[in-house]
Amino acid sequence: DGGITQSPKYLFRKEGQNVTLSCEQNLNHDAMYWYRQDPGQGLRLIYYSQIVNDFQKGDIAEGYSVSREKKESFPLTVTSAQKNPTAFYLCASSPRQGEGYTFGSGTRLTVV
Amino acid sequence: KQEVTQIPAALSVPEGENLVLNCSFTDSAIYNLQWFRQDPGKGLTSLLLIQSSQREQTSGRLNASLDKSSGRSTLYIAASQPGDSATYLCAVGSGAQKLVFGQGTRLTINP
Fold first, then answer.
1. Looking at CB atoms within 10 Å, which of A103, B29, B35, B56 has the fewest?
2. For residues B79-96, average pLDDT
């Protein structure tokens, strides 16, 4: 079945560490997105990519980095520069502008 | 900047009732609007997608309407069931394929 796979489901980060969240899709969608969800604040866009080898900053990109070397994959790195990384991270994809989004099941990141 | 508001923030109703969730947005230059469902600790499940040229979409007991000129959408749930309990999110597509989300309505259906 086609879909989006996010891993791991739970991730713990120590202070000063970089961690990478995985997002893989087999839907043949061109565009991919990373959102952060905090209680009471809804979803906020971190980064998005409309095509391989190209990506754009969203509303809250500071402290995060991404790459898009393959159409199927859009990993997100949470760097030590992100001061408040504890949140639920959601990856999504869409075939093209005007089409609906498909979301993964999310990764919950906690700083310990 | 596009802003999306959902009212109410929480709603609790007895099983079997019909109910309406509201979503409003500030910029009418949208290309679509999507309603999602989110269960606790889970990802988002797409319920309905309305293109900017459409007025409504239906799927089973769900009906979503769109009025671009007034910046409003409603999600109508008929004959509610306990399994409908979840958070419902409205998201507007505007500019560079970006979705802007409301903060959601947390719905509880009491048996």
1. B29
2. 92
Structure tokens of B51? 């293109």
Distance from CA of A61 to the nearest CA of B (A): 14
pLDDT in tens, B14-67: 999 999 999 999 999 998 999 999 999 899 999 999 999 999 999 999 999 999
Q: How far apart are CA A26 and CA A7, in angstroms?
A: 15
- 8 Å CB contact between A26 and A2: yes
C-alpha span between A68 and A56 (Å, rounded): 11
Please enumerate residues of A whose Cβ is less than 8 A from a Cβ of B: 6, 31, 33, 35, 40-43, 45, 48, 50, 56, 58, 88, 90, 92, 94, 96-106, 108
In the block, residue with structure tokens 């309603």: B35
Instruction: Give me the amino acid identity at A105.
Output: S
Of A58, A88, A101, nearest to B46 by CB-CB distance is: A101
Each residue's pLDDT tens digit, A32-61? 999 999 987 789 999 999 999 999 999 999
